[in-house]
Amino acid sequence: MPKQLYALFGGTFDPIHNGHLLPVMALAKEVGLTQVNLLPNHIPPHKQQPDTTPIQRVAMLKLAIEGNPLFTIDMRELNRDKPSYTIDTLEEWRKEHGMDVSLAFIIGQDSLLSLPSWQRWRELLNYCHLLVCRRPGFTAQTESPELKEWIVQHQTQDIALLHQKPHGHLYLAHTPLEDISATEIRQQIREQKDYHTLLPEKVWQYIQQNQLYI
Ligand SMILES: Nc1ncnc2c1ncn2[C@@H]1O[C@H](COP(=O)(O)OP(=O)(O)OP(=O)(O)O)[C@@H](O)[C@H]1O
Ligand SMILES: O=C(O)c1ccc[n+]([C@@H]2O[C@H](COP(=O)([O-])O)[C@@H](O)[C@H]2O)c1
């Protein structure tokens, strides 16, 4: 029985969509995750404030994961009134769970490329592994020499290692490509286009009922 690998999946989720859910469900199978904690941020460090309130974003998360035991929600960033730096969250998580259990933080490939602009980014692997989902339009090929070198230093393809070691590795997953973004969904809504295949039906209904993003 491999050691449990805890997983956090951070995002703005404005709104949550199938480009979040389908790759992460595939990742869970690929790597052997039994639970993924969705971590909605409060003040995204690198983007505009969300169009919707935290309450609305969490309501959509709850509807998206209804009946899917893989997912739970971690509210800690919403309870902090400052930019949601991942390093702060990981430090707090480790204070609660200790340094011995294995923890993964899940990101998409676009986030991997932006990593050198994250707060104390080189320290992230002192607290977690990073699991990277594929995303159309992005690869792990980077122009940044420092990121390139860092990827070579930390990358592993050994899934067992992710369970055995508590933190320290980067894993580039083989997850399916889903060409969906929250930006595109918000745009489709403004243009009154049909977007209901891009997210779970119940999230679509919630957006319609509450007239979000118009
Ligand atoms: N289609 C996708 N495929 C793989 N990863 C994704 C996809 N969409 C989002 N992600 C990843 O999910 C995490 C949270 O993303 P976020 O909530 O910002 O969604 P987004 O669609 O990128 O939003 P926006 O379009 O508003 O920038 C990020 O690490 C991002 O890389
Ligand atoms: O810590 C940082 O500096 C940092 C910079 C950009 C993004 N993040 C986190 O990365 C996750 C995905 O971010 P985003 O902007 O794509 O929704 C989310 O949990 C953010 O809080 C974190």
Automatic annotation (TrEMBL):
Which superkingdom? Answer: Bacteria
Query: Keywords assigned by UniProt?
Result: ATP-binding, NAD, Nucleotide-binding, Nucleotidyltransferase, Pyridine nucleotide biosynthesis, Transferase
Domain named Cytidyltransferase-like: which ranges?
8-187
Which Gene Ontology BP annotations are present?
NAD+ biosynthetic process
Return the Pfam families for the record: CTP_transf_like
| SUPFAM superfamilies per UniProt | Nucleotidylyl transferase
Q: Which reaction does it catalyse?
A: nicotinate beta-D-ribonucleotide + ATP + H(+) = deamido-NAD(+) + diphosphate
- Write down the EC number: 2.7.7.18
**What GO molecular-function term can you cite, just one?**
nicotinate-nucleotide adenylyltransferase activity
Q: In which pathway does it act?
A: Cofactor biosynthesis; NAD(+) biosynthesis; deamido-NAD(+) from nicotinate D-ribonucleotide: step 1/1
> How would you classify this enzyme at the top EC level?
transferase
Q: What HAMAP family does the entry give?
A: NaMN_adenylyltr (MF_00244)
Summarize the protein's role. Catalyzes the reversible adenylation of nicotinate mononucleotide (NaMN) to nicotinic acid adenine dinucleotide (NaAD).
This chain belongs to the protein called Probable nicotinate-nucleotide adenylyltransferase
Organism, by scientific name, is: Zophobihabitans entericus
Q: Which gene encodes it?
A: nadD
